[in-house]
Design goal:
Oligomer: single chain
CATH architecture of the largest domain: 3-Layer(aba) Sandwich
Protein name: Phosphoribosyl transferase
GO molecular function: transferase activity
Strand content: 15-25%
Domain Phosphoribosyltransferase: 20-169
Strand order of the largest sheet: 2-1-6-7-8
Order of helices and strands: HEHEEEEHHEHEHEH
Keywords: Transferase
CATH class of the largest domain: Alpha Beta
InterPro entries: PRTase-like, PRTase_dom
Helix content: 25-40%
CATH topology of the largest domain: Rossmann fold
Distance between the termini: 32 Å
Amino acid sequence: MHYADRAHAGQVLGAQLEHLRDRDPVVLGLPRGGVPVAAEVAALLGAELDVVLVGKVGAPGATELAVGAVGEGRHGADWVEVRAEPVLALLELSWSDVADTVAEVKAELADRSRRLRGGTEPRSLRGRTAVVVDDGVATGSTVEAAVRVVRDLGAEQVVLAVPVAPAAVLDRLTEIADDVVCPLAPADLSSVGRWYADFTQVDDAEVRGLLARP
């Protein structure tokens, strides 16, 4: 199975999350690509839509390869750091070796928060069911950071919903989220974009537009 685009992926996910409708969930997309997926899930569940801000920490000289991730904490100035220890070990790197990249990611997230939220704080999720949505998972570091951020914001239950992820990574993610929904779990992911007919890049203007929907 392949997805036509992110909206199609969100519709497939939403159909598998119908059981959450009565729990008054909050659907949280990872900007930017996860937000169009999350918007469809939120529409199908009649739920609020928001974002959870996390950023990938790329390997030196191979920025597409995640060695970890950073997430926005409760007060914007607090940070959640997730290290992909197996990847770091494979590359013979320590976390301190990517300290400059981590600082850059934090600065970028702070700037993105201002652009997308207009300076407002992340909403409290205390006592709520939070559905964390991305357009796909490769190493799992970014969504792991997102789950930890959402728990820090007070969510009572965290459901991770992604259209595609490697089977081996899903095994780990089931240990950090209360529930994981993933319709497509290939043994060989190759890349997330491979599983979409249209994987056009999403910009901040599109994210703002989706968040502004009534």
